[in-house]
Digalactosyldiacylglycerol synthase 1, chloroplastic (Eruca vesicaria subsp. sativa), 780 residues
Amino acid sequence: MVTESQTPPSSSPSSLSMTLSSTNALSFLSKGWKEVRDSADADLQLMRHRANSVKNLASTFDREIENWNETGIMKKLQPKITEFRRVYSAPEISRKVRERWGPAKAKLGMDLSAIKKAIVSEMEVGDESESERSRVGRRWSNRDRVRFTEFCGEGEREGSFGEWEPIRCLMSRFKEFEKRRSLEMLSGFKNSEFVEKLKSSFKSIYKETDEAKDVPPLDVPELLACLVRQSEPFLDQIGVRKDMCDRIVENLCKCKSQHLWRLPSAQASDLIENDNHVDDLDMRIASVLQSTGHHYDGGFWTDFLKPGTETSESKRHVAIVTTASLPWMTGTAVNPLFRAAYLAKTAKQSVTLLVPWLCESDQELVYPNNLTFSSPEEQESYIRNWLEERVGFKADFKISFYPGKFSKERRSIFPAGDTSQFIPSKDADIAILEEPEHLNWYHHGKRWTDKFNHVVGIVHTNYLEYIKREKHGAIQAFFVNHVNNWVTRAYCDKVLRLSGATQDLPKSVVCNVHGVNPKFLSIGEKIAEERSRGEQAFSKGAYFLGKMVWAKGYRELIDLMAKHKSDLGSFDLDVYGNGEDAVEVQRAAQKLDLNLNFLKGRDHADEALHKYKVFINPSISDVLCTATAEALAMGKLVVCADHPSNEFFRNFPNCLTYKTSDDFVNKVKEAMSKEPLPLTPEQMYNLSWEAATQRFMEFSDVDKILNDGEGRRRMRKSRSVPSFNEVIDGGLAFTHYVLTGNDFLRLCSGATPRTKDYDKQHCKDLNLVSPQVHKPIYGW
């Protein structure tokens, strides 16, 4: 009996059909499992690829972070990253995550037991080709079963994922990613525009130009030369003069020039052709500083943006500040007036003349012939009429007034309050301080060089010579000498000395920037025409004219006349002048029985003086005697001392200078016995205000400023190094401001009482705000 199981497969159609169906089903399952396996392998490959990408990205970012660490940025971020890691990896957070996602994770499990049993049973039957495939399937099934068993164990855990190798790899990658997640948060910055700009900025800081490599640093001789130049203010105060400092710098530069500075070719050629060691040193320092890329804006005490640097006007503005005003016929009243007129005549700049206003009580002490003014407008009208009568044209400039007080003891006018505030900020461009030491002895207000772009001081008076004539004059002159250095250095950019007779002040040059009244040149032309026609132009002998005070040459005149009374014989001298010492001078001349005829003071252009042939001026206290220039302009002979104050006049053939008292007698006799030579056109031009204005523009550097093609300076130019001189000057100005703010110190130093601020009478006359309301503040 043959059982069903023993029947061959081909013996029954139904069995064959069942076998084929089973075979097709198993083939379908096998094929489906293969696709699942291939898909899983592809997923694993993709996951490995992505994991490697994340790893490479992290490595790249590590390198970027290391580069950033060199710049110091990550040192600041590291504490924050550490804190973020600590908080994020806290056990509480991990527990909460597991509690939230645990149930979902259990539901994701798959029961693969039925599929596994079907595959195993299918692998046990079939043909030989299928047997090989079943063995492979069995090995795969056994491997999976082992893995499932290792993870699932028994019971309900059988159906969960367990530690399936793809899941375990994925979890390990997640753990690795979690460790680096704080750094990967910054991965988005890697290629951002901000990071690129930041990196380029850091690189530019340490970028070294080719020029910097070619310029060597300063050596010892150069550093010493620079130190000496910068220390000139201090050395000057301890007695080391500027010429000595210049010689030291020159010697140091010569020592260095033996080893030619290694500069760019263009600069080196300039050094060979130019022997100006100071300019060479400046060029050398500038090249070194430029190579370093260092820049410095402004000074320690300097305003960067000046109030007066922005204006709607195209013309520049010049403000002339002086210490006296007409009708007081003194040099500081007349010469600044002419300067304002001729500067305004060029029409290149607008001009303001700032003169002192005196209360009526002071006017009675100062102005001649009891002349007084009730208002500034009335005095301004007088000044303009006087000027137009002498220059022959209408001068277009503004006249303003500042409060002033007259000191009987010093016979001078001193400003009351801050003089600089009477020039509006919009007009604060170029300032000309006539007698800068006088204006600033007790100046308590804004620094001139802070308010104005360029400040020029013009020294009119030899104060040291006057002070030495007083009681304890040597001690006073010592202190005044240093105070003058102090204030001119602190408040001026440039100082012009009319002659070498003045004190050698900082930042100063010697140049005569004064001319003569055009009226005197007209008188000289008229006298030359008379002489050309054969007429007698000079019918009188010699005269002297000047304010009758001992310091104006009267002491020298009486001494010379007394010593050589017999040598001069019948020589008579007419003396014109008024002054505080008139009685004493006349009494001394009468006591010595000198041939001096004292007459009332006159204007030098008076017709009564036209016929004199010789003008005698023995004064050695003047800086530049205006009367001497006027006498030469009128074609007269002049006898004067061989003194620095007369150096400008030596080039004129009609000027006779003497060195000794005996030589004085010889020059007087020579002048009385000869006729003066007519002035040439060149000599007349040199005496004119046109020439004086041209010299002023050149030596004060105002011409360069006005012709600057860049226009008005809106800010202090950038410099490569802070100037030690500017720091010293600013410190001196600040110290002076503090000291002059103390009323006790002002009175002890000789200041006129109540000149720190203007008083109520000044407020009334000039329509000013009460000084209690408007207080000048340094640096504002």
